[in-house]
Amino acid sequence: MPNPRRTFAIISHPDAGKTTLTEKLLLQGGAIHLAGEVKARGAARRARSDWMKIEQQRGISVTSSVMTFEKDGVTFNLLDTPGHEDFSEDTYRTLTAVDSAIMVIDAAKGIEPQTLKLFEVCRLRSVPIITFVNKVDREGRDPFETLDEVADKLALDVSPQMWPVGMGGLFEGLLDFRTGEIARPEGSSKEYLGTRDTAEIPGEYAEQIELAQVGYPELDLEAYRNGDMTPVYFGSALKNFGVEELIDAIARYAPPPRPQPAGDAQISPTRDEVTGFIFKVQANMDPNHRDRIAFMRQVSGTFKRGMKLTPSGLGKPIAVHSPILFFAQDREIADTAEPGDIIGIPNHGTLRVGDTLSEKNDVRFTGLPNFAPEILRRVQLRDPTKTKQLRKALDDLSEEGVIQVFYPVIGGSSIVGVVGQLQLDVLVSRLAAEYKVEAALEASPFATARWLKGPQEKLDEFERFNQGNLAHDRDGDLVFMAKSPWDVGYQQEKNPELTFSATKER
Ligand code: G4P
After folding, report:
1. Does the annotation place 19 within a ligand binding site?
2. Is the full-model pTM beyond 0.90?
3. Which one of 9, 28, 214, 362 has the minimum C-beta count within 10 Å?
């Protein structure tokens, strides 16, 4: 029997401690499968060397996209949600490939803007969230304040599972409500090194803790898994507090691989045939190689190296000979992958974001959305004879998921939309390198876009009066180009029969 799987991501605002926590999770997990750290033999080495070769020769870094570790018979797949400058639609889409998420917040700062954005994407798909309040070794806010903020801002029920006994300079340890044990800081670094006890908690803290235990609801597994309640853990990634409890919580409470929507059907992980969907395509930065790695979230079946799968976009099967299997722990099964696992598939641009792969070509996963861009730019061609090439390039790149493209109802130049700045740089360099199109990106008057839906007559009417603010996307769907978020609200109020959607299902 293969290990149970837990496929999850960490959502946070930069600096909250995602990187530190990731390292600690991997360390705790013991078996770390990061580039160069796996000492594998035979099949496992082959599996690894395939992708290391790809990385070295072609300059594609895939190692940090998926991190797999094992603990107590559970396999954890941690998917990276790129942040900081790398923030892009990929960051959002990764959340469509996980079954749950850990939300890391800084004990002193609470919910920050990027956390909120990522949380909203989780909510869209009812992805259950475990909250980790990090940096309790520092002076932070009162834990009650943090819990109430999570409850208010995210409209979630909160259920604390731990409590810090003091914070900052007064930090004496971390109480686990489930076991009643207090993890203690040790030595000059005040780290957690494994010492726990059940000593009595001193006066004021005891009162606080009692209040916390009666003041919030107990963990309701169903409410958590529906995305209505979040269990809250406290800790310090830096000093190793709360990390063990967090892993334990993911194993204990986080959902196993979930069925995935395919039209009106739900494809269960227990289905025999292999199915999966592409949630991310990573292109090569080296213009001499057109290789891409498509990341497939496996939904069902047992994948075996060399297996033939049919991509929905292609119609004919491809043999997956050199998959990147991030799971390479058990040498016997290093050439296989299970539902919940991620497989990297090298290809030359045949696989696109949103594609389904299946053995029988009888499934189409739905619900992998596009997200409203947060940066919009007008594309200006340097050489006007290249209009056709530009259009082809923009269509290709939007299909690949690098950018979104909008063709204004009035006016000639196309508008591209992204959610992160880095995507624009990638766009310009790929236009030049791969399509030989020199283009510049100029400011556009628009700040965001919304997909329009509603009764046809209302849409027509809206179109008549708002031509200057309308565009069609690559599929010809009508999009409202807003000059500000306020503009969206205003139009929504004026046109209650229309919906202005920030996401679009592909
Ligand atoms: P990110 O990936 O979410 O951006 O955060 P990262 O882990 O890089 O952490 C941001 C900063 O916060 C780092 O400090 C890190 O050491 C610190 N940090 C993370 N977890 C904790 C914690 O539990 N307690 C305390 N006190 N600090 C924590 P830095 O000075 O910016 O970087 P570095 O020089 O320490 O690497």
Report:
1. yes
2. no
3. 214
Residues of the chain with CATH 3.40.50.300: 5-255, 261-358
Cα torsion 295, 475, 310, 369: sign:
positive
Establish whether residue 137 lines the binding site of ligand 1, counting it when its CB lies within 6 angstroms of any ligand atom. Answer: yes
Reply yes or no on whether the pLDDT at 277 is more than 70: yes
From the CB of 240, is ligand 1 less than 6 Å away? Answer: no
Given ligand 1 and candidates 10, 11, 13, 20, which is best to mutate, with the most ligand atoms within 8 Å of its CB?
Answer: 20
Q: CB of 16 closer than 6 A to ligand 1?
A: yes
State mean pLDDT over 394-413: 88
At residue 33, the pLDDT reads: 45
Q: What is the pLDDT of residue 333?
A: 44
Q: Span 261-358: which CATH code?
A: 3.40.50.300
404 Cβ contact partners less than 8 Å away, ≥ 6 residues apart: 89, 370, 373, 398, 416, 417, 418, 449, 473, 474
Write out the residue limits of the CATH 3.30.70.3280 domain(s) in the chain.
Answer: 369-505
Residue 17 is labelled as binding a ligand: yes
108 lines ligand 1 (CB under 6 A): no
Taking CA atoms only, the protein residue closest to ligand 1 atom 17 is 17
Cα separation of 50 and 72, whole Å? Answer: 29
Asked whether 238 lines ligand 1 (CB < 6 A), one says yes
For the structural domain made of 369-505, what CATH number should be given?
Answer: 3.30.70.3280
CATH of region 5-255: 3.40.50.300
Q: Whose CA is nearest to atom 28 of ligand 1?
A: 238
The conformation of residue 339, written as its DSSP 8-state character, comes to: T
Of the listed ranges 97-111, 134-148, 171-185, 289-303, the least confidently predicted one is: 289-303
Instruction: Determine the pLDDT at residue 248.
Output: 96
425 labeled part of a ligand binding site: no
Distance between CA 430 and CA 438 in Å, rounded? 10
Which H/E stretch holds residue 121? helix 113-124
In the chain, % of residues over pLDDT 90: 62
* Residue 476 token pair: 């010809």
- Predicted confidence at residue 21, as pLDDT, reads 92
